[in-house]
Amino acid sequence: MKKRILSVVGTRPEAIKMAPVILGLKNEPWAEVRVLATAQHRQMLDQVLGFFGIRPDIDLDIMRPNQSLTTLTARLLLELDTVLATEKPDVVLVQGDTTTVMTVALACFYQRIPIGHVEAGLRTWDMQNPFPEEANRVIAGKLARWHFAPTEGSRQNLLREGIADGDISVTGNTVIDALLMTAAKELDVGIGLDPTRRLVLITCHRRENFGEPFENICLALQTLAKQNPDVQFLYPVHPNPNVKDVAHRMLASQQNMLLCEPLDYAPFVAAMKLAYLIISDSGGVQEEAPALGKPVLVLREETERPEAVEMGVVKLVGTDCLRIVQEAQKLLDDKEAYQAMARGISPYGDGQAAGRVIGVLRKHFA
Ligand code: UD1
Ligand code: UDP
To answer: Treating both helix axes as pointing N-terminal to C-terminal, what angle do 43-52 and 12-25 enclose, rounded to 10 degrees?
Structure first.
């Protein structure tokens, strides 16, 4: 009898990071892998699943425009109750720290279904930052049976919370598996960029930055674009209305600031490879960019991914307008400061993380 493994994806980054695990499990003779899309994201999830050739077996189509966290959580829990009772999986795999992950962990706990948590043990130790992700991953971590920690630091975080050492495996982050699979292909950003001008790539979407902090970020980007007419700025804008409306209002008129829809994964990897500098509050981008040798200025006060910061290839710059402008301008003007950050270091994995996750499951189930 094959073991039924239900892999859950809700948002864009979960799909990118779970894809190598899903594709790997399909080659395991002992495993029957099923894919559940909560579709907490719609277009951005479909983009990624399409790129990796993954078709969900179940799709809850849960996204609604500007949905509140409570409504999202409540609707997900109700839908998951039915799906889990019908699917009867032997194990459920979740990835990361979204509301999808937290609700799946809780619904599985109620039905006594064991969970494997991919990208376990990331912590800032501050419940408000990032919000609500720190709470999501703490809850998922409490309920998980297998913890796939990307780094030794994340393993230590789990030990500090009382998780048994034997339940934790340090695997690396599957984001690097996905990145290496993709970066090896012939890639094109698909947007007319000037190859003679330097490119600054921007992404931003964190909830704790909504409102004034995000307006400060936009003001900083506006200033940088004005100060550097010879540089092109590419900003694929997250569709969350709290981001999209402000970004367009404050930045659309800037001639060298190109605002576009979220890029498909492969074109986005192409853009990261072309970029001179990346300014972002994204978790995944903080992991990918160092592997591509691209400096990242992180628009956050703290990070659950301290490894690249400690190595000096990622820098936290917060949301203060002046600070962002100064730090970015320094990297645009000062070659030495730039080279010190553009070193091609990958503290988050070697591209073999999915194999290690599957290895742990194989040992238990096969
Ligand atoms: C979510 C995750 C966050 C993750 C991010 C990755 C939660 C609470 N947040 O944030 O941890 O870092 O995804 O991008 O789990 N929308 C669309 N189309 C899409 C996706 C989103 O229109 O494909 C819009 C909708 O109006 C939706 C809103 O964005 O209601 C917010 O989506 P939601 O998943 O709640 O939060 P994100 O900000 O995307
Ligand atoms: N990404 C993408 N298109 C974009 C912006 C980002 O495919 O226009 C990818 C990026 O390479 C990374 C992931 O999306 O793998 C990060 O997702 P996001 O920033 O939405 O979420 P987070 O990682 O912060 O949870």
So the answer is: 30
Helix, strand or coil for residue 114? coil
Q: Where does 3-173+349-365 sit in CATH, by number?
A: 3.40.50.2000
Tell me, what's the pLDDT at 30? 98
Burial tier of 6 (Cβ tally within 10 Å: 0-12, 13-18, 19+): buried
Comparing 3-173+349-365 with 199-341, is the CATH topology the same? Answer: yes
Nearest one of 74, 82, 136 to 111, comparing CA atoms: 82
Distance CA 42, CA 286 (A): 23
Q: Write out the catalytic residue numbers.
A: 97, 119, 133, 205, 207, 238
Q: What's the pLDDT at 153?
A: 98
Q: Which of 261, 255, 247 shows the shortest CA–CA distance to 225?
A: 255
What is 199-341's CATH topology?
Rossmann fold (3.40.50)
- Distance in Å, CA 73 to ligand 1 centroid: 13
Distance 270 CA to ligand 2 centre (A): 13
What stretches of 204-291 adopt beta strand conformation (E)? 232-236, 257-260, 277-280
- Which residues of the chain register pLDDT less than 50? none
Q: How do the domains of the chain map onto residue ranges?
A: 3-173+349-365, 199-341
Point out which residues pair with 116 in neighbouring strands: 93, 146
pLDDT at 118: 99
Q: Which two tokens stand for residue 76?
A: 């997900």
| Interval 117-157: pLDDT, tens | 999 999 999 999 999 999 999 999 999 999 999 999 999 99
Three-class secondary structure of residue 209 per DSSP: helix
Alpha-carbon distance 141 to 229, whole Å? 47
Listing DSSP states for 63-77 in one string gives --TT--HHHHHHHHH
Task: Locate 65 and state its tokens.
Answer: 């425009």
pLDDT for the residue numbered 206: 96
Please give the Cα distance from 21 to 153 (Å, whole number): 22
Best mutation site among 203, 292, 348 for ligand 2, i.e. most ligand atoms within 8 A of its Cβ? 203
Q: Is 211 helix (H, G, I), strand (E, B) or coil?
A: coil
